[in-house]
């Protein structure tokens, strides 16, 4: 057993417990300082991900075939560390750190429960870490539930607010439904294949446990309807986390009702955890041509409906958190577009966009937190005149929204370009690219509607926002990432291309090989 | 750094400098913007001189001396710039318009100067990018980079009545147009990738071939005959419709007049002067050489729609009571001539079209600069409200009258020469009745422009406008004098401009002309019946 590989997870879990204990020992008037403890945890974990001990080749070549390197797995194969999980863990660390920096102001308004907030945020982080490394359906489920359950509490954290409680309840109900669907799907897969593990375990040259990857690679497991239904149900369940249609209905309400820092965390952390699992499951089944052939139209359909639902739904919104909620459904559609294309560039674009989405969305939410603190409102109309009142905040929100809309020279542009471009390689998915393009125009409209209010309307609310240092740091980091990532995307894009290659997705668009 | 990259970097760097300057230092900010535009103008003049003295070989040598700089290698994106005679003319146009617009906004913009200049410079950099890059990804990138600043320029500094609607409409139209064109670009990209794989020496090497967004690779694939006619017909349709929305071609033109009308003076100057040229430039730069057979297939229709632009645009302009709308619709009417020249596929017609893009850009920048000049004082563009302004602003009235002459195609201005070339080209290509309609289109232009001139500037003195101030001093007059001088210079001496443009468009024209010949030959011999596109079309009809 290779516990070193689990070092970041161990750090986060121990850190979460330490914060919880520290909270007990601190007198009530000094609990404000706890955020620094909480912040240290993701930063240390981030540093730990760069340790050379964790840099293990994810795949090795055996008899000409690339297989999973046992050295890169732990917990008897349930835990797998490859390029994708590493990238996502770093993204999760950044997300958690930025969210913790944003939460401090909000939390000081609560008179109790600070310690719990920080440790729950950290436990959610550990869940996300395990999602990124899950290598069988059981750890996938448990990791995902760790994230979901932490968020049930976090979303309902503002006990005095009815909407917050309601949001928590909605998340709970929908979350349980999706968990049930997913378990049902896992049962189907188990029934069809006889295993829930992705990888086989070999002890002394003997296979002690069969894995899906190997069964599919050797042709022992072939396409069957039960298997397909199972995988589809799993994708539906994961779709709840990523806010994909049809399990997206909770998103606008929960985004609106939850405390804003939690909404921010939910919109990036929980979402990406769902996506990374989608990629992992797709990767496992991508070894079977017929499976991919039947999954792709399904995912494409989900992507198209999600795109239209999110972007059309955002049009009439007057509340910025609801708007960002619908927009996050739309953004989920774009990422699904790359997943559905299931070839290197599409997957690379997916990973690029996921990473870009973290900084972009968090920047938008940081501004929302600051503005609403001054105006006590989330109405978009109250952003009128922000351009004169708080020019820097206005610029930050504008840049974040433009990046979400996919406008150069910001990071979102390149991601969207890759995602949409990747669908044009295959004859079957070209229509999906066109759907994506139509939605770019629709989305541009509502993002511009916010920008319009910021710069072209007279101010309605005279209160100026005071920007504390912590949020300045958040904004500075995210703005730098947005602009540098937009002007010089090659660093991230080359990395994601490498990862996509390592995941062994098709090097060419499907349907493009025959030429 | 090479001279062409500098063209894009200078405005961006200036935008960066302005962004960190204190907002109160408006004079310094304007100075930086003007200096950056002036530098670009200097580079453009240098390039023009190179093109004039060294001819096309000098430009080819310059282009070849600039290496491709890989940007995202796995996707085949590279920063690569290059120019031909056509781009030199457009680069010159953009730098002239930018320079004069920055002078004009120097006194016209008083509110949020810093933000204005940042966006203005970003817009200029985007336009330079479209005119110089040789990579399809960056072409799209640069275009989008130009569109969004325009949204804010119109929306924030535009005329209060309709700016929000106009800005939104313009941005959505241009983005949608660019996306439709992007479909075509992506078709070319994937097809080129297949071509690059097909020429690889072995199967293993083919698997390793990286895709490419570079236009040279696309053209190599096109020249080798790798693109089938069916593919070209399809790709050209997407490229052309996308770019046509930017030109703007009827019936996709409605964003343009309202965009002109609502924009602040410098915004209108950039919009009508250069943004409207991006579409026709991209058609010539990408769509023609990449899909000559597609062009051959569609161009008769383009010539037809050009008529709609000229006549319909002209008639709509006649009905306008708002001065900026008159000029706005007149612009889309003039773009009809450009389209006709492009559709003619003769060296003289296409050169004329490019020359007209240049001349119209300068002329319309002058017109909007002047309108902006008195609109900033009157806050009224409604023609019946104005009248007799020549009493109060004689200098502006004179300049405006000259601009009107230029627009109406009076000999002595560059516009006359270029429109004449377009008509010659159309006639030569066999578009006889289209040429006749185009000639009468000039009459329509004269009607609404002279009428507008009369109603705004002539007639009895209107005391309501007694407080209007005329252009005073070198600083205020300089941009207008410069623009007029350019129009007159190239009107009396069009040789240099034609000599620069012609070698640039000749290879493009030759390619498409060859494709047209092939198409006609096949139509005569009936070979086309077996063509994929026709077979597909027949099958589709049968299915219905």
Provide tags for this entry.
heterodimer, A: 515 residues, mainly alpha, two-stranded antiparallel sheet, two-stranded antiparallel ribbon, 19 helices, 4% strand, B: 544 residues, 21 helices, globular
Strand order in space, largest sheet of chain A: 1-2
Radius of gyration of chain B: 23 Å
Large-scale geometry of chain A: globular
- Contiguous uncertain segments of 5+ residues of chain A: none
Quick gist of this model?
With 515 residues, chain A is mostly helical. Chain A has helices at residues 7-25, 34-48, 83-107, 114-133, 137-155, 162-193, 212-218, 225-242, 250-257, 260-285, 289-314, 320-341, 344-375, 386-389, 391-405, 411-423, 430-456, 469-487, 490-502; strands at 59-62, 65-68, 73-74, 79-80, 201-203, 206-209.
What do you see in this structure?
The complex is a heterodimer of chains A (515) and B (544). With 515 residues, chain A is mostly helical. Chain A has a domain of 213 residues. Chain A contains 19 helices and 6 strands. In chain A, strands 1-2 form a two-stranded antiparallel ribbon. In chain A, strands 3-4 form a two-stranded antiparallel sheet. In chain A, strands 5-6 form a two-stranded antiparallel sheet. In chain A, a hairpin with a 2-residue loop joins strand 1 and strand 2. In chain A, helix 2 packs parallel to helix 4, helix 12 runs antiparallel to helix 13 and helix 13 runs antiparallel to helix 15. The longest helix of chain A is centred in the middle third of the chain and has 32 residues. Chain A starts with 6 loop residues before the first helix and ends in a 13-residue tail after the last helix. By secondary structure, chain B is mainly α. Chain B has one domain. A two-stranded antiparallel sheet of chain B has the order 1-2. In chain B, helix 5 runs antiparallel to helix 6. Chain B is globular. The mean pLDDT of chain B is 88. Classes of the chains: A mainly alpha (515), B mainly alpha (544). The interface between A and B is large, with 37 and 38 residues.
């Amino acid at each position: 057993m290779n516990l070193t590989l689990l070092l970041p997870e161990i750090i986060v879990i121990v850190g979460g417990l330490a914060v919880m204990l520290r909270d007990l020992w601190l007198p009530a008037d000094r609990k404000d300082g706890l955020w620094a403890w909480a912040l240290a945890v993701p930063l240390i974990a981030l540093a730990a991900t760069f340790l050379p001990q964790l840099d293990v080749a994810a795949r090795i070549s055996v008899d000409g075939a690339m297989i999973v390197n046992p050295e890169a797995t732990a917990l008897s194969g349930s835990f797998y560390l490859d390029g994708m999980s590493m990238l996502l863990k770093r993204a999760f660390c950044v997300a958690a750190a930025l969210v913790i920096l944003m939460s401090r102001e909000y939390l000081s308004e609560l008179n109790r429960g600070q310690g719990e907030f920080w440790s729950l945020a950290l436990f959610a982080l550990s869940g996300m870490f395990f999602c990124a490394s899950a290598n069988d359906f059981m750890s996938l489920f448990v990791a995902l539930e760790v994230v979901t359950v932490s968020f049930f509490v976090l979303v309902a954290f503002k006990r005095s607010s009815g909407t917050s409680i309601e949001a928590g309840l909605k998340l709970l109900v929908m979350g349980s439904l999706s968990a049930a669907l997913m378990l049902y799907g896992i049962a189907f897969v188990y029934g069809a294949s006889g295993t829930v593990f992705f990888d086989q375990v070999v002890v002394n040259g003997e296979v002690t446990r069969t894995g899906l990857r190997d069964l599919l690679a050797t042709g022992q497991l072939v396409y069957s309807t039960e298997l397909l239904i199972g995988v589809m149900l799993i994708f539906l369940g994961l779709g709840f986390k990523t806010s994909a249609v049809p399990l997206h209905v909770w998103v606008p309400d929960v985004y609106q009702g939850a405390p804003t820092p939690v909404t921010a965390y939910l919109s990036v952390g929980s979402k990406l955890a769902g996506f990374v699992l989608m990629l992992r499951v797709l990767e496992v089944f991508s070894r079977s041509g017929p499976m991919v052939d039947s999954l792709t139209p399904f995912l494409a359909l989900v992507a198209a409906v999600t795109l239209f639902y999110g972007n059309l739904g955002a049009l009439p919104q007057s509340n910025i958190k609801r708007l960002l909620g619908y927009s996050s459904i739309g953004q989920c559609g774009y990422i699904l577009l790359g997943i559905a294309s299931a070839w290197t560039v599409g997957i690379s674009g997916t990973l690029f966009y996921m990473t870009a989405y973290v900084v972009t969305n968090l920047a938008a939410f940081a501004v929302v937190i600051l503005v609403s603190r001054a105006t006590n409102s989330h109405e978009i109309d109250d952003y009128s005149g922000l351009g004169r009142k708080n020019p820097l905040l206005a610029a930050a929100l504008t840049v974040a929204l433009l990046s979400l809309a996919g406008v150069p020279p910001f990071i979102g542009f390149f991601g969207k370009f890759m995602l949409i471009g990747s669908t044009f390689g295959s004859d079957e998915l070209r229509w999906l690219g066109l759907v994506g393009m139509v939605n770019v125009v629709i989305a541009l409209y509502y993002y511009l509607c916010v920008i319009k209010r910021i710069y072209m309307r007279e101010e309605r609310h005279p209160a100026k926002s005071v920007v504390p240092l912590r949020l300045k740091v958040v904004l500075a980091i995210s703005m730098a990432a947005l602009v540098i990532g937009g002007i010089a995307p090659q660093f991230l894009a080359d990395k994601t291309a490498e990862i996509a290659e390592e995941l062994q997705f098709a090097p060419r668009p499907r349907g493009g090989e025959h030429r | 750094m090479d001279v062409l990259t500098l063209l894009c970097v200078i405005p961006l760097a200036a935008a960066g400098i302005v962004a960190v300057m204190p907002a109160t230092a408006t004079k310094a900010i304007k100075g930086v913007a003007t200096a950056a535009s002036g530098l670009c103008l200097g580079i453009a003049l240098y390039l023009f001189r190179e093109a004039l003295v060294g001819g096309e070989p000098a430009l080819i040598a310059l282009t070849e001396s600039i290496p491709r700089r890989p940007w995202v290698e796995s996707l085949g994106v590279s920063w690569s710039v290059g120019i031909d005679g056509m781009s030199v003319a457009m680069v010159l146009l953009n730098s002239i318009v930018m320079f004069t617009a920055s002078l004009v906004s120097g006194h016209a913009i008083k509110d949020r100067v810093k933000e204005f200049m940042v966006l203005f410079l970003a817009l200029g950099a985007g336009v330079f990018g479209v005119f110089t890059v040789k990579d399809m990804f960056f072409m799209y990138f640069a275009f989008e980079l130009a569109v969004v600043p325009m949204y804010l320029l119109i929306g924030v500094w535009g005329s209060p009545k309709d700016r929000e609607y106009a800005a939104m409409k313009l941005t959505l139209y241009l983005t949608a147009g660019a996306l439709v064109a992007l479909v075509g670009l992506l078709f070319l990209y994937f097809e080129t990738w297949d071509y690059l794989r097909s020429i690889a020496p072995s199967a293993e090497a083919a698997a390793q071939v990286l895709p490419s967004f570079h236009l040279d690779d696309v053209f190599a694939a096109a020249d080798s005959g790798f693109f089938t006619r069916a593919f070209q017909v399809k790709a050209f349709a997407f490229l052309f419709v996308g770019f046509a929305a930017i030109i703007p071609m009827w019936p996709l033109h409605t964003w343009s007049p309202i965009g002109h009308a609502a924009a602040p003076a410098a915004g209108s100057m950039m919009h009508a002067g250069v943004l409207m040229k991006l579409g026709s430039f991209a058609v010539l730069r990408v769509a023609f050489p990449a899909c000559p057979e597609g062009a051959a297939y569609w161009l008769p229709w383009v010539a037809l729609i050009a008529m709609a632009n000229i006549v319909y645009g002209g008639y709509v302009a006649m009905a306008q009571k708002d001065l900026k709308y008159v000029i706005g619709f007149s612009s889309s009417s003039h773009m009809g001539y450009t389209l006709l020249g492009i559709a003619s596929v003769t060296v003289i017609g296409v050169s004329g079209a490019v020359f007209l893009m240049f001349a119209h850009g300068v002329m319309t920048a002058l017109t909007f600069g002047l309108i902006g000049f008195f609109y900033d004082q009157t806050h009224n563009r409604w023609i019946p409200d104005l009248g007799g302004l020549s009493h109060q602003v004689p200098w502006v009235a004179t300049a405006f009258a000259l601009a009107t002459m230029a627009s109406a195609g009076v000999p002595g201005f560059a516009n006359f020469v270029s429109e004449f070339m377009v008509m010659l080209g159309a006639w030569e290509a066999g578009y006889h009745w289209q040429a006749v309609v185009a000639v009468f289109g000039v009459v329509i232009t004269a009607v609404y422009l002279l009428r507008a001139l009369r109603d705004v500037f002539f007639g009895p003195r209107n005391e309501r406008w007694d407080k209007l101030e005329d252009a005073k001093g070198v600083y205020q007059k300089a941009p207008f004098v410069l623009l007029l001088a350019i129009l007159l210079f190239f009107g009396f001496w069009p040789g240099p401009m034609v000599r620069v443009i012609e070698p640039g468009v000749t290879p493009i024209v030759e390619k498409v002309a060859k494709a047209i010949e092939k198409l006609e030959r096949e139509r005569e011999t009936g070979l086309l019946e077996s063509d994929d596109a026709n077979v597909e079309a027949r099958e589709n009809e049968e299915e219905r």
